[in-house]
Design a protein that fits this description.
Number of domains: 1
CATH architecture: Beta Barrel
Order of helices and strands: HHHEHHEEHEEEEEEEHHEHEEEEEEE
Oligomer: single chain
Distance between the termini: 69 Å
Structural class: alpha+beta
Largest sheet: 14 strands, antiparallel, barrel
Strand content: over 45%
Radius of gyration: 24 Å
Number of helices: 9
Strand order of the largest sheet: 1-2-3-4-5-7-8-12-13-14-15-16-17-18
Helix content: 10-25%
Length: 430
């Protein structure tokens, strides 16, 4: 089989969804393992708990411009294995068998989560932010990978149950305000959400052709896409400093949420791979066939599996409601220690890899414009995250290694990285 067919299937998977790690919104937050709810100030507080901007010693103004946070994880395979899979023709039989052996019986999975605060700012007790989010996943059944890599084997039954993906993207326009009542700060953020679209894709059919005809396995891959959607959301937060060096902070995002995806007017794409593609397949040709197949979805003309795919498109796609709570202690004038808990309050495909997490972090200022960070987080099960971060003037960087347990003896590993620019006033609010 030619390498391009494997690449084509991987590319089709990517079209359906890249998809999710646990991705904090800012480099400082990632550098401290996500333990940043009580430590956030200025425009970063707008993204985590608006009440924090009413605490003493917040800057008179602050802003951050394009920040990109991206996380990726793979089940069973390493990133090197993934690229071997897309360039399979250069491997010998032993290397191919070793690669296939790394995939759990239930299949492999690629997850990605990208969050991009394009701009965030605060002026005194007011704040605003524009953020882009995309999240999803894609799985490949082990039998499908075997078919693609080793061609059709007569008498073999190929499963399709665990091959498919999901992706959702949306923009978030937010505005917030905070006020202090004695020692207690209270904040509120309103959101307008604009849906960028959802995609649900899967292998919907495997048609086995037996002798006396030429043996073959025709695999049909289909994707359904919706565009648009809109709605509003409301976040509430509280914070206080019982002592100048100690901050307590808690918030709930999307306490109220009216966002709904637009699932009318679905678009359908599909492509069928057969022996010709396995033996002489052309990546560009397969992708061209897939793209050129786009048409309006007609439920009456669709197969049962495609109708089931359409019905599944909007399942568990409410935007997540998230509880955050944390404590931060300014141990010394230039040393900060913090801890945070985060938990989803509803089931959602758009809610990230972990439903809950507990994290601790440390930050040390080395020079007026240079700081370093480290952190650790757990999903309170078998998932863990180790992170570090660095600030050099306006540049903020964060990097984390994520591990999320095992499936059939194979582990899920991944990376989260983030970078952005920010600045704030030298004067502070009382």
């Amino acid at each position: 089989m030619k390498t391009s067919v494997v690449g084509a299937v991987c590319a089709l998977a990517a079209l359906a969804a890249p998809a999710a790690a646990q991705v904090p919104l800012t480099p400082r937050s990632l550098g401290m393992g996500g333990a940043y709810v009580a430590a956030a100030r200025g425009q970063e507080a707008m993204l985590l708990n608006p009440a924090n901007i009413a605490l003493p010693n917040n800057p008179h103004w602050s802003f951050g411009i394009p920040t990109l946070s991206a996380g990726f994880s793979l089940l069973g395979l390493s990133y090197g294995d993934f690229w071997d899979l897309t360039d399979y023709g250069g491997l010998d039989d032993g290397e191919r068998e070793a690669l296939l052996d790394k995939i759990p019986d239930s299949g492999t999975e690629l997850r990605a989560d990208v969050q991009a605060p394009l701009v965030a700012l605060t002026i005194r007790r007011f704040g605003a932010a524009l953020t882009y989010h995309t999240i999803g996943y894609h799985t490949l059944d082990r039998d499908i990978v075997d078919l693609l890599l080793n061609d059709y084997q007569i008498g073999r039954r190929y499963t399709i149950e665990n091959t498919g993906g999901f992706r959702a993207s949306y923009f978030d326009v937010a505005a917030g305000y905070a006020h202090r009542f004695g020692p207690l700060a209270v904040g509120v953020t309103g959101h307008y959400y604009a849906g960028g679209g959802m995609t649900r894709a899967a292998v919907v059919d495997v048609d086995t052709i037996l002798p006396p005809a030429t043996p073959d396995a025709r695999v049909t891959y289909a994707g359904l896409q919706s565009e648009g959607g809109s709605g509003f959301g409301l976040d509430l937060g509280v914070a206080m400093q019982p002592r100048p060096e100690l901050t307590l902070s808690a918030s709930v995002s999307n306490v109220v949420n009216t966002f709904e995806w637009d699932t009318d007017g679905l678009q359908l794409k599909d492509v069928t791979l057969d022996r010709n593609d396995y033996e002489t397949g052309d990546l560009e040709a397969v992708l061209t066939r897939f793209d050129e197949s786009e048409r309006e979805y007609d439920a009456a003309a669709a197969s049962d599996t495609v109708r089931a795919l359409a019905a599944d498109l909007g399942r568990d796609t409410d935007l997540p409601s998230v509880l955050r709570a944390g404590v931060a202690w300014q141990a010394l004038s230039k040393t900060l220690v913090s801890a945070s808990y985060q938990g989803n309050l509803n089931e959602s495909r758009v809610g990230g890899l972990w439903e809950r997490s507990l994290s601790v972090g440390w930050q040390q200022e080395l020079l007026p414009l240079v700081s370093i960070r480290a952190g650790i987080a757990s999903n309170l099960d078998d998932g863990s995250l180790l992170s570090g971060g660095l600030t050099l003037g306006p540049l903020n960087l964060g990097l984390a290694r994520i591990s999320d347990g095992e499936v059939d003896g194979r582990g899920r590993k991944g990376w989260v990285a983030t970078a952005g620019l920010s600045a704030r006033s030298g004067s502070v609010m009382p």
